[in-house]
Specification:
Length: 174
């Protein structure tokens, strides 16, 4: 006999609500297109991509989006009516991402992004320190090739100060 698992979440065993289809709502393409044409140019609305009942007496109809820069997106118009004898009303129109749509990445809180940044900086510092330690074998020879005579900063007004004999220098006192 198996024992119940601690902290197990109960499984919802209630059957899903079956929403009856409303052929009038699902077939109201012209009304949906007219509502979409209020927010975008008619040429941006493509062919029908079907529809679904989302609640009793509420349907959403989908249409291809022809806007440049929105591949994989689709227009949606949600329609309703109170009962079979009531007129169809538009609830909302929107542009929704579909399969393959380019969307923003999932939001990451600032504290997590900052922690990732700090970890990356620490790793970069550790890598740099390791490279510096590995390259210290020749550290004693690093300045061996420096020769001040070849530096251009010794020239003042075109005179090489290292070449001037200060004992024979002319002074204003003479």
């Amino acid at each position: 006999m198996s024992e119940p698992v601690a902290n197990a979440e109960p499984v919802d065993t209630t059957p899903a609500q079956v929403i009856p289809e409303d052929p009038t709502l699902l077939g109201a393409h012209e009304q949906a297109i007219a509502a979409l044409a209020e927010v975008t140019d008619r040429s941006d609305i493509g062919a029908s991509e079907g529809g679904e009942m989302v609640e009793p007496n509420v349907a959403t109809l989908y249409f291809e989006c022809r806007l440049r820069g929105y591949p994989g997106w689709r227009w949606a118009a949600s329609l309703t009516r109170v009962d079979e004898s009531s007129p169809i009303t538009v609830l909302e129109v929107e542009l929704l991402p579909g399969d393959g749509a380019v969307v923003a990445p999932e939001w990451v809180p600032w504290s997590e992004r900052m922690a990732q940044f700090r970890d990356a900086q620490s790793q970069a510092d550790a890598d740099e320190t390791a490279e510096d330690d590995a390259g210290d074998d020749d550290a004693e020879y690093d300045d061996a090739g420096d020769d001040d005579d070849f530096d251009d900063d010794d020239d003042i007004d075109g005179v090489d100060v290292d070449a001037v004999d200060t004992d024979e220098a002319v002074t204003d006192d003479d």
